[in-house]
Specification:
Elements lengths: L34 H9 L7 H11 L4 E4 L6 H19 L8 E4 L3 H14 L9 E3 L5 H8 L5 E4 L1 H9 L10 E5 L1 H6 L3 H10 L5 E6 L7 H7 L4 E4 L3 H4 L2 E7 L2 H13 L6 E6 L2 H12 L6 E3 L5 H12 L5 E5 L15 H4 L16 H9 L28 E6 L6 H8 L9 E7 L19 H14 L4 E3 L11 H10 L2 H18 L4 H6 L1 H9 L24 H4 L15 H12 L12 H4 L13
Helix pairs in contact: 2-3, 3-4, 6-8, 12-19, 16-17
Amino acid sequence: MKRKLNEHDVPDATVQATPARTPSNSTFAALQLDPRLLQGIEKQKFSSLTPIQANAIPLILEGNDVLGRSQTGSGKTAAYLLPILQLILKHKKDHNPTKSTSALILVPTRELASQVTGVARSLAVFCANDIRIENITREDDKVQRARLAESPDIVIATPGRTCVHLNNSALSLKNLTHLVIDEADLVLSYGYDDDLENISKSVPRGVQTILMSATLKTDLDVLKNLFCRDPVMLDIDEGKESNKVSQYVVKCGEDEKFLLIYAMFKLKLIKDKTIVFVGDIDRCYRLKLFLEQFGVKSCVLNSELPVNSRLHVVEEFNKNVYDIIIATDEHEVLGDEENITETAPEALGKENGHVNTNGHPDDPADAADAKKKPKPVKKKRRTSSRAKDFGVARGIDFKNVACVLNFDLPTSSKSYTHRIGRTARAGKTGMALSFIIPTELYRKHKPTSFPTCEYDEAVLAKITKAQEKRGQKVEEYAFDMKRLDGFRYRLGDALKAVTRIAIREARTRELRQELLKSEKLKRHFEENPEDMRHLRHDGELRAAKLRPHLRHVPDYLLPGGVQAVERDVGFVGLRKEETNREKKRRVLARRKGKTRVQKTRKADPLKTFNARGRGRKGAAL
């Protein structure tokens, strides 16, 4: 039986979280870390300790098991990496250094594994000769086995990859001293339960365990029972920091979503870097092709792309190459919350498809059946056969995100919370904007309709309630849709160009390009050049047909641009005035009193040339 949760999803019944303490000196130098680590910290320009770092690092250095909760972007990665690096360096200094794996860091996604690896190597840059760090999620099995043969000090992997190498004896955990599970609740939601049980059998007793997450839920009892021994609970409440996210919703029609996002990006109503969340992969490419019609550049991030391509997209976004990412959130975090699409009739006050205005069954017989009918089972997790180790809403460090735009609303308030956590990180402010489809407007524009939009209002009610518990407010974005009437004809032109065939071809073209770039297939193409030729010349794929005139926004279409049209432009004749040279010569001649102007243009001999002597001009030679 699950225990009751408080407002932060922390079990109250038996476990009490240790409150955050405010250290007298919140600097890294006060922690007495190795000078080489302090150099790495200085190079990364970390100025002061965050609350999770100030509380977790001393506890980990003392050898305690730690279960910590802190919001996204609060520095949890450095909070466990710094003490682990310090303890490894101290152990090597006090004992004869031997090649063995001392720390295993488990993460739910490959993108997060790459990010943690980057942070670890940057912090240990001045002691790289003493600490070897390996990420075993990117290359193929043979390359990974070769890396593990060197017994790196720190191994970063997903639970699935770890089990593979434990089974083939490439990875040894005999000398393991530290085990970290980052985004622990997300690891469980991705369906790694069996893998974690297998890993627990290989982990020796007495290993220090650190669980980090943005939420503490009863599901984490599974991990605590598997790995922890009386952990110290850290619940870092940063309510003031979370208020830096301004949350707004816009209620609109299905086609008006596209109208709004076009106007917002084209008119620079949303500035700086933006992550746009959509419902599925087709929706990604539909929106990308739509924005291309207006010259708005964006990139796509979804589970269909190879892992190297996804990592490259994140890197390019962080380097400001792209300002807009259109991403799918295919593994939404549901936790203990019901999936609104699974229990939508109850959420919307419906039973058996018959609903009256009060939200109760019309037929008393239906009402009796509804009472007898068992309640739907809550769905804890949702897994997909597509790229289990892919996720955007959690873990990945998108830098300097100014706005998170929920083009399609998620199906749970948990997923919404983690989506908006991509902005307002590291003490900065941000905005979250969500498009809501009212129930009466659902399926009114079928070409742009999306199934989950039917339950937007029910999901919004849950989101509003959850955010109020956190001390935040979801407000309506005051936007006058009438001021965008001038853009509607352009909207129709652009949507007509983005057909299903164009979307399918765009997906195929992008996958083909990634196949040609793939390092794994390079050798295959060298041995089979015919396969590469077929890939390159298997018909020219066309994206949506571009209309150049849509890129330009005339003044009269701008909101408030009526004044620009009403300005006095003078008389405009129906006929085009002649402005040729002959006309000018006649005008000048009249002014000088001359009645005839000699033509200065010489006759073109080629135009009067006749090869037959006499005959029709222009006869063929």
